[in-house]
C-alpha cells in the first residue's frame, strides 16, 4: 500500500511523464457552459482527440441544440458514432437538452458561473442524464474550479498504479475525487485528466499493454507483468 506522500509524489511524476509521452494535439477549446455539459457526455470514457472529432461532427450534423433536442436518440447516436456506448450517450444528450429547455426555456446556462462552485455543482447534478464525471468536468473546464473528473478507464489505470485501492466498483467516488484533488494542484488538473485518459484508452486497457506503458517502472501491475514474462535464466554450461 502506498503511503499518502508516496501517492502524491507518484501522481506528480506520472503527470510529467505522461505529458511528455502524450503532448496535447491542440490548444484547449473554450466552450459555453451548455456545450461543455454536452461535450462531457461525449468525452467520458474516451480521449480528448476522439471526443473533439465526434463533438465537431455532431455540431455539424444539426442546425442547433433545439434540433438535437427534437431528434430521435438513434439520430443522435449516428452523429456521435465512434465513441464508446454511443447509444446511451445519445440518450443522455437528449435527456439533458430536454431538462435544460424545460427548466430555462432556452439553451443558455450563463447563470451557473455566477453561483458558487458548490451550488453550481449541486444544480448540475440535478440535470437528467448527468453523471459525476460530467459535473466535475464542467466545474474544471467551464467554471474555473478544482475538480477531477473520473471515468471508468481512468479509475482502472489509477487502480493498477496503486493510487486507488480495492477492486470492483468504487463505492465512494466523491471521497476518491476529494483525495485526488488534494494530491493534484488545480493548475495540473486538466493535464492529469487528459493524459490519464489517453493512457487508459490506448495502453492501460482491459487487457493492458504493459510493455508500452511509460509508467511501468513505477506501476505495481507493470512490475508484476515483467515478472510473469521474464525469460528463464539459461542453464550454465557444464564444466568439462
Automatic annotation (TrEMBL):
Protein source organism: Limnoglobus roseus
Record protein name field: Endonuclease III
GO molecular function: 4 iron, 4 sulfur cluster binding; class I DNA-(apurinic or apyrimidinic site) endonuclease activity; metal ion binding
Keywords assigned by UniProt, alphabetized: 4Fe-4S, Endonuclease, Hydrolase, Iron, Iron-sulfur, Lyase, Metal-binding, Nuclease
InterPro entries xrefs: DNA_glycosylase (IPR011257), HhH_base_excis_C (IPR023170)
SUPFAM superfamilies listed in its UniProt record: DNA-glycosylase
A Gene Ontology biological process term: DNA repair
Origin superkingdom: Bacteria
Enzyme kind, highest EC tier: lyase
Location of the region described as Disordered in the Swiss-Prot/TrEMBL record: 209-240
EC number, as in UniProt: 4.2.99.18
TM spans (from-to): none
Positions with biased composition (Basic and acidic residues): 225-240
Amino acid at each position: 500500500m502506498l503511503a499518502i506522500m508516496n501517492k502524491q509524489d507518484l501522481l506528480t511524476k506520472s503527470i510529467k511523464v505522461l505529458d511528455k509521452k502524450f503532448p496535447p494535439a491542440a490548444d484547449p477549446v473554450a466552450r459555453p457552459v451548455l456545450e461543455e455539459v454536452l461535450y462531457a457526455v461525449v468525452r467520458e470514457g474516451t480521449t480528448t482527440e476522439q471526443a473533439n472529432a465526434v463533438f465537431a461532427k455532431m455540431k455539424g450534423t444539426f442546425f442547433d441544440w433545439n434540433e438535437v433536442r427534437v431528434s430521435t436518440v438513434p439520430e443522435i447516436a449516428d452523429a456521435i458514432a465512434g465513441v464508446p456506448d454511443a447509444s446511451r450517450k445519445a440518450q443522455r444528450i437528449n435527456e439533458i437538452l430536454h431538462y435544460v429547455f424545460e427548466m430555462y426555456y432556452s439553451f443558455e446556462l450563463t447563470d451557473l458561473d455566477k453561483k458558487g462552485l458548490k451550488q453550481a455543482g449541486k444544480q448540475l447534478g440535478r440535470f437528467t442524464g448527468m453523471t459525476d464525471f460530467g459535473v466535475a468536468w464542467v466545474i474544471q473546464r467551464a467554471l474555473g474550479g478544482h475538480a477531477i473528473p473520473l471515468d471508468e478507464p481512468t479509475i482502472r489505470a489509477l487502480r493498477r498504479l496503486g493510487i486507488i485501492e480495492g477492486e470492483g466498483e468504487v463505492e465512494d467516488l466523491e471521497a476518491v475525487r476529494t483525495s485526488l484533488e488534494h494530491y493534484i494542484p488545480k493548475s495540473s488538473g486538466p493535464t492529469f485528466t487528459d493524459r490519464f485518459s489517453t493512457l487508459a484508452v490506448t495502453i492501460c486497457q482491459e487487457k493492458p499493454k504493459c510493455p508500452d506503458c511509460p509508467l511501468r517502472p513505477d506501476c505495481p501491475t507493470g512490475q508484476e507483468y515483467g515478472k510473469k514474462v521474464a525469460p528463464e535464466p539459461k542453464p550454465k554450461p557444464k564444466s568439462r
